[in-house]
Specification:
By secondary structure, this protein is α+β, with helices and mostly antiparallel strands.
């Protein structure tokens, strides 16, 4: 297979391992094919770097960086990378095949999405970014095109680790406008990016899910990028008033121009989204809507360079914390935020103590511990859950109870007291966390019939799934292989059994007009048996040794091992030299010309008067087959 030849990808094995099934799509720098990994009997997606970039060291390195970065990220919301390499002059990555649609397609088909669904998608997107950020991997290209929504509702993030290269990204035709619509201001300025940059892009994606449109649009990538730097987005509720206010608050906080004013981690944004999903207000107070003085000044001085990038008036240094400290900030935004926090806390205490609304006030006994709402931490990782509880003042955390579960190791399964209930700050909090699935012995069933193999697996607590595959060497109905094939596996997990469907059927190849030897090789490659010797048929128009017809007809589906008859041209029909000896020279010449043969007369001196003027011999002799137009030499006697 080559990246420039789509038809060649559909035959044979790519890199000796992958059978290409069909093309899935293409992008600015690569094309993607659906393939079967014949070694592991599973479908994969093969991403092949386009030929025009194969000799570009920058793009090759970018492509390799994607594979290296993603291969180290094993998490349920991140597409798995299986293999990478180079074959037929093309660089490729083999990755998990995702049966679903891009989030961009979902929004285009269904948008705006209901708030609850948008939150569910975003929480899974954040789970993937949290995992990556903790391993110092910044995505840099978060957009709906790189988010896959599977048939079962799961979300997978793709294209990790692609580095963006300044001006080339701002001008590359056909691919940059989509990216520019989700670009963070610091990316537009060419500054160093961190997790907050990905979270800005998440805010843009959430904005688009909720409203059905992107916050900024323009005629060019540079125009869109400038809006990210200079303009505030229209609040989502002005586009669609039914959007919950708390959800709008989250979007606007994620899209703050200053990275320091955004969410600082995926966890922080996720906690707010989870609260809104439960009908609560975000834990983070809303920020002032006005830009700080230093940011106004900075934005006002942003210009577009001749290369199309958006340089910063005050470039950030390579040390991000130092860069933030470098920028003088007024104190009033923080004072307003603290006042708001105090107001929210006072309002909560006011409601909890029964003031207002006609409720009977209660008096907190002196020296007692105040009660407050317990955060719902089910579904969080234990460390995140403990941190969330600690932030709310609950510090009496009992040792977690571990339990087998199909949920990821360390995820909170239950909590006591339950989330949203009221409890004293010193109340003991008991969390039950997953210790992963219970591992049990996995039976080895290769070689057994499917009925026996599936029964053994069910008895051991597994879920067998059958995949049929043609195999001329394994009896029909017998198990060829199993996946996984490890000694142990998670109880209740799925085991894929590849079962022989027998020799299977293949299409008779179209070998008409090919040489007989090539036709025999093509049949043998498909497990078909040629009937030998082939039928020989004369033909004035088809060269000798060329196949004239095939039986069964080309394209017909037949079982492997089926006999196929080839009819092969023997060339033009042969002509038999007639008996010429004894004929006169004239009669012999006329007989040969009537058959379409040429005549050459060879005189010879004789003494027998009776043979004078008669044919004594011919070359070739009589009854010899010759081709049309052949010359026959006749020897004619003459008396001296």
């Amino acid at each position: 297979m080559t990246a420039h030849d789509d038809t060649s990808t559909t035959s044979g094995l790519f890199d000796g391992r992958y059978r290409i099934i069909r093309r899935l799509g293409s992008g600015g720098m690569a094309r993607v094919f659906l393939a079967e990994d014949v070694d592991l009997h599973r479908q994969v997606a093969i991403k092949v770097l386009s030929d025009r970039y194969s000799d570009d060291a920058t793009f090759v390195e970018r492509f390799a960086r994607e594979a290296r970065a993603a291969a180290g990220l094993s998490q349920q919301n991140i597409v798995a990378i299986y293999d990478r390499g180079r074959a037929d002059g093309s660089y490729y990555i083999a990755m998990e095949f995702l049966d679903g649609d891009t989030l961009k397609d979902v929004i285009g088909r269904e948008g705006p999405l209901p708030p609850r669904r948008a939150i569910e998608v975003t929480l899974q997107l954040l789970a993937a970014l949290r995992f990556a950020h903790r391993r110092d991997v910044i995505h840099r290209d978060v957009k709906p095109h790189n988010v896959m929504v599977l048939r079962d509702g799961r979300v997978k993030v793709t294209d990790f680790g692609i580095a963006r290269a300044g001006d080339s990204d701002m001008t590359e035709a056909g691919s940059i406008v989509g990216t520019a619509q989700y670009l963070s201001p610091e990316q537009a300025r060419g500054q160093e990016v961190g997790p907050e940059s990905d979270l800005y892009s998440v805010g843009v994606v959430l904005y688009e899910m909720l409203t059905g449109r992107v916050p900024f649009a323009g005629d060019s990538a540079v125009a869109v990028a400038m809006k990210h730097v200079q303009e505030r987005p229209m609040p989502p509720r002005q586009v669609l008033p039914s959007i919950p206010p708390g959800l709008e608050q989250i979007v606007l906080r994620a899209m703050e121009k200053d990275p320091a004013r955004r969410y600082q981690s995926a966890d922080e944004m996720g906690i707010d989204l989870d609260r809104v999903r439960k009908g609560l207000d975000p834990a983070s107070p809303p920020l002032p809507t006005a830009l700080p003085a230093d940011e106004d000044h900075h934005v006002g001085r942003t210009i577009v360079s001749s290369g199309g990038a958006l340089p910063s008036a005050s470039p950030r240094s390579s040390a991000r914390p130092a860069a933030r400290a470098d920028r003088a900030r007024p104190a009033w935004p923080w004072i307003v935020a603290l006042v708001l926090v105090a107001a929210v806390a006072a309002g909560a205490a006011y409601v909890l103590n029964g003031s207002g609304g006609g409720a009977t006030p209660t008096t907190q006994p002196t020296g007692s511990t105040a009660t407050s709402g317990v955060p719902n931490v089910v579904g969080m990782q234990i460390a995140d859950a403990q941190a969330a509880l600690g932030l709310k003042g609950f510090t009496n955390l009992l040792a977690p109870i571990e339990a087998f579960s199909d949920r990821p190791v360390g995820e909170v399964l239950q909590q006591d007291p339950p989330g949203t209930s009221l409890a004293a700050s010193d109340a003991p909090i008991q969390l039950t966390v997953s210790k992963g699935a219970e591992l049990v012995d996995l039976p080895t069933v290769a070689g057994k019939t499917y009925e026996i193999a599936s029964g053994l697996l069910r008895t051991a607590g597994f879920l067998p799934r059958r995949v049929d595959k043609a195999d001329p060497t394994i009896a029909t109905g017998d198990v060829i292989s199993q996946d996984p094939s490890t000694p142990q596996a998670a109880k209740g997990s799925e085991v894929v059994l590849t079962v022989s469907s027998g020799p299977g059927k293949v299409a008779v190849p179209n070998v008409v007009n090919t040489k007989e030897g090539d036709a025999l090789s093509a049949l043998a490659d498909l497990g078909l048996v040629a009937v030998l010797p082939s039928l020989q048929v004369p033909s004035a128009s088809i060269a000798a040794g060329t196949v004239i017809s095939v039986s069964p007809a080309p394209g017909k589906q037949v079982a492997r091992g089926t006999k196929v008859t080839l009819t092969v041209s023997s060339g033009p029909a042969q002509i038999t030299v007639p008996t010429l000896v004894g004929l006169s020279e004239g009669d012999a010449t006329a007989a040969l010309k009537k058959l379409g043969l040429g005549v050459k007369v060879k005189p010879v001196v004789i003494t027998d008067v009776s043979q004078d003027g008669s044919v004594i011999s011919s070359d070739p002799p009589s009854d010899t087959p010759v081709g049309p137009g052949s010359t026959v030499t006749i020897t004619v006697g003459h008396v001296a």
